[in-house]
Amino acid sequence: MSLNKNNIPFIFFLVITIGVKAQERPSIQKDSILVENLDEVVVTATRTIRQLSSLPLPVTLIPKKQLEQTGVTRLNEILNEQTGIIMTPDATIGGGEGVQIQGIASDYILVLIDGVPVVGRSSGNLDLSRFAIGNIKQIEVVKGPSSSLFGSEALGGVINIITEKPVSEKVAGQVSHRVASFNNQNTNFSLNQRLNKLGYSFFADRLSTDGYDLSPNQEGNTVNPFFNYTFNGRVFYDFSETLDVYASGRHFFQEFDVSPSTSEEKDTNLQLRINHDASKKTNLQYEFYYTNYVTNERAVDPIDNELLIENDFDQKLFRPEIRYNHIIKEGNIISLGGGYNFESLDRSLFAETVSFDSQYVFAQFDFKPLEKFNIIAGARFDNHSEYNSQLSPKISARYQLSENLAIKASVGSGFKAPDFRQLYLDFTNAAGGGYSVFGKEVEAAGIERLQNNGEIATLQVNDSELGEQLDAESSIGYNLGFTYKKGKLTADLNFFRNDFKNLIDTRILAAKTNGQNVFGYINRESVYTQGLEIDMKYSPSNLLSFSVGYQLLFAYDKDKLDDISNGEVFARDPETLATIQLEKSDYFGLENRSRHTLNFKTFYEIPRWKANANLRITYRGRFGLTDRNGNGLLDDFDNSFVDGYALVNLAIGKTFLKHYQLQLGANNLLNFKGSNPLAAQDSQLLINPGIQLFTKLNIQF
Amino acid sequence: MKTNFKLFSLLFVLIAFASCSDDDGPNLVPVESKTASNIAAPQTGGQGQPVGGVFTKFNFATGQVTTSETEWDLAFRGTTVAVNGGVVTGTAEEPSRSGNGGASVQSGTFGSITDADGLTFTQDADGAFAIPSGSDNGWYNYNFMTNIVSAIPGKVFVIRTHDGKYAKVEFLSYYEDAPANPDPNTDASRFYTFNYVYNPNAGETTLTQ
C-alpha cells in the first residue's frame, strides 16, 4: 500500500531524530535526501519532532521562505495572513494589538521562543511586534487547548517561534536594511557557523519608526515614534555523539519618544539546554530558563515637569525543566517531563513584590495501535501556590481513511492561572474619579483599610466572600478535521468548539462614600467559540502556489444568551430612544470577533530571472468593538461596528550577483483606511494608517 | 345627504359612548405619558475631590424642577438620584427626606410595566440610595472604553411620590439634548432626559394611559 510508502520517511525520521539526535533540531537533517519532507516537521504539537501532515491536531506552519518572500519584519504581521489567526486592535485609541485564534483572545494564547514561554503582558495582551523574525526558521501555531503539554495560558493555542540553527561550515551571514513608510527603518545582521563540534550564531536587529496616526484631527500620534534593538546569541556544542549542549541569550530593548515623559521596555531571555541520548531509544533533556520583562513609564507634565504617573513593571520567571523521551517501538514514543516555575512581579500598582511557585509533571504517549491509526494521549498536572491545582488531559487521534483522506479529532483542556493583577492589584484611581480595584488576595485587607478610613458607604458582597480563592479559568476544546491530499492539491477542513468557564470578571465589592465603586475579581463568565476552518492549497508546480483559507466563527457569552432567552435584555433604539426587548438574533456575539475571515495567497518564483513575487489578500468581516447602549452586550443597536475590509499585500524580490537581494513591496496596497465608529463627532478615527511601501536590500555572505 | 346623516349618527353614537365611559367610575384625572428633557443635575468635585453641589429636585405633579424643600419626588446630582423618602444617605448637601417616597426597580420595556400594585418600594437609607449609585447598579452603565454614561435599557423605576402617588420612570440620556451617539468630549453631561407616566389620582396604582 502506498500509505506505507508515506510512512517510511516519517518513521525513519522519528527514529533517527528522536533516538539519536535531540528534539527540536530538525535542521540537522539537512543533508538527508528527504529534505523536502523533513522541512515540514513541527515540535510544538507533541514536544517531539513530528511530520506536520501526520499530526492528529490542527497546526499551522509558517516556513522561512514565506517569512523571507513576504518581506515582513515582525511576528504580528505574518500571523495575520494565516487562516483563523487574526490580529485584533484594541478598541481603545493607541492600544495594542492582540492575536486571536479560533475566536480566543490573546490572553489565552501562549507564546514561546524555542519552546520556552515569553512573559510580559499588558492587561493580558502580549505585544507580538516585539518579536523580530530575522533569524527565524519557522513559526508553528498549534490551535486549540494545549495545557496538557504547556500548562497555563495555552487555552486557545500555542505560538512557537523556532530560531534557525547554523549549518554551514564556513562563516555565513547576512546583513539587510529595509526602509518603509512612516520612516520605518529596519536593519538586521546575522552571522553563523557550524564547525565540527561547535556551532554559533549571532543576530542583531534595529527598528525605528516615526510612528503613525489614526486620528488626523487630534493632537498627538496613535503610535509614537520609537526605536528598538534585538540581540540574540546562541552556542551549540557537541560533547560527544550522545551529549550536546545549547545556550541562548536574547535581549530586547525599546524606547518610545514621548518627551518629556519616558517609556521603555526590556525583555531578556536566557536558555540552557543539555541533551543526552542515554541509549538509542532514550533521550533526556535538561533545560534551564530565565526571563525578565521590565517596563518603566514616567508621565511628566510638559509645562511644569511635574511627575504625573510612574508605572514600573518587573516580571521574572525562572524555570528548570527535565524531559524524557523513550521509543518503545517504531512510532510509539513515551514522553515524560517535570519542572518548577519561580515567578515574581514587582509593580508600582502593587503593595509589594509578589511571587508564585508552581510545580508540574506531564506525560504523553504517542502510539499507533494500528498501522493507519495514531493516538496521542497526554496529561499534565500543575500544582500552584496561589490557586487550585490543575489536571489537564488531552487526547487526539488520526486515522488514514484512504490513500488521500485522513480524519483527525482531538479533545483537550486548557487553563489560565489567575494573573498577578487579578490576585494582587491594589489600585485607587485618583485621577479617574477615585474608584478602587483590589486583587483577590488583597481585597479583604483593602476593604478593611477603606472601612477604617471611613471611605466605604455600603459593602455589596458578603463579608465571608472577601478573599475566597479564585479558580483558574479553564476550557475544553474539541477539534474534528479532515485532510485531503492528492497530487498538487491539499485541503484541510476543521470544525472547532471551545467551551470556557470560570472566566475572571470584575464585580463591585462596595460603594464608596465618594459615589465611586470598589471593584474586585470573580470567576463568573462562561463563553463559547465555535466554527470551522478551511484551508486549501494548490501548487501547479513547485514554483507556483495558490492558497485559500476561510474561517467561520460564532462566539457568544452563554450567560448573556440565557438572559436574552429569559427576556431580560433590552436595547434602546438610538434614534427614537424607545426600549426594545432583544431577540437572540439581535445579539452579535463577543467583541472583536468577525463571523467571516478569508485569506488568499499566491507565491510565484521565476528561476530564470532569479525573481519571486507574491500577492496576499486578507479579508476580515464585520466586527463590533464595544457595547454602547448600556446593556452589557454587543447588539445590532450598538453603533460600534467596523465594516468588513480587505488588505492587499504585494512583494517582489530579485537576486543580483548571487549575493544581493532586492525586495520591493506594498502592504495595504489599496490604501484602505476605514473608519472607527467610536470616533468623536465631527472627527475621524482610522482603522489602518494606509498604504505602507517598502524596499529591502539584503546581502548574503 | 344620506351619507351625511350616517356620519352624524356615527358621531353621535361615539360621543355617547365616550361620555358613558366617563360616567362609569369616579372622576379620575387622566394619566399622561410625558418626557422630561434636559434636567440639569450639576455636581461639584469628583475626579478624586469631594463630591458636592445642590441636588436638582423634580416634582411629577407639576412636571417641573422645583426648589421646594418638601414637595419634590426625585432629586438629581451627577449620576446620583435621590427619592423623597427615608433618611439622608450621608453625602454632602443632600436634601432632607420629608415625604414618604420610594423606588422599585423593574425590568422590561416601558410599556410592559403597567401597575405599581404589589411592588416592594425601597427608600433612601444611611449609606444607600433606593436607586443604587454606581455603574450597573442602578440606572446607568459607565463604559470605561468610551467614557460614556448610558441609561441601561429595560430598567424601569416605579416611584412612589412624596405624597404617596405613583409614577414610572425610564431614563433615556445623561447628555444635553439626548444625542443618539453622545460624545463625552463635546456633549454636555449631567442633563437628564427621561420618560415618565404619572398617575395623579390618590390611591390609584395604574401606570398606563
pLDDT < 50 stretches of chain A: 1-6, 8-38
Q: Regarding quaternary structure, how should these chains be classified?
A: heterodimer
Kindly report the average pLDDT value of chain A: 88
Largest interface: A-B, 43 and 46 residues
Mean pLDDT of chain B: 84
User: What is the percentage of strand-forming residues of chain A?
Assistant: over 45%
Question: What does the main sheet of chain A amount to?
Answer: 22 strands, antiparallel, barrel
Strand content of chain B: 25-35%
Radius of gyration over C-alpha positions of chain A, nearest whole angstrom: 26 Å
The helix fraction of chain B, in percent, is 10-25%
| Spatial shape of chain A | globular
How many individual domains of chain B?
Answer: 1
Major beta sheet, strand line-up of chain B:
1-13-12-11-8
**Total DSSP helices of chain B:** 1
Low-confidence stretches of chain B: 16-24
Q: What is the terminal separation of chain A in angstroms? A: 46 Å
The count of strands of chain B amounts to: 13
- The number of strands of chain A is 38
The helix/strand class of chain A is mainly beta
H/E series of chain B, N to C? HEEEEEEEEEEEEE
Whole-Å distance between the termini of chain B? 38 Å
Give a written overview of the molecule.
- The complex is a heterodimer of chains A (701) and B (209).
- By secondary structure, chain A is mostly beta strands.
- Helix content of chain A is 9%, strand content 53%.
- Chain A has eight helices and 38 strands.
- In chain A, the strands form six sheets. Chain A has a 22-stranded antiparallel β-barrel. A five-stranded mixed β-sheet of chain A has the order 3-8-9-6-7. In chain A, strands 1-2 form a two-stranded antiparallel sheet.
- In chain A, a hairpin with a 2-residue loop joins strand 28 (517-541) and strand 29.
- By secondary structure, chain B is mainly beta.
- The longest helix of chain B has 23 residues, at 2-24.
- Chain B has one domain.
- In chain B, 39% of the residues are buried.
- The model of chain B is unreliable at 16-24 (pLDDT under 50).
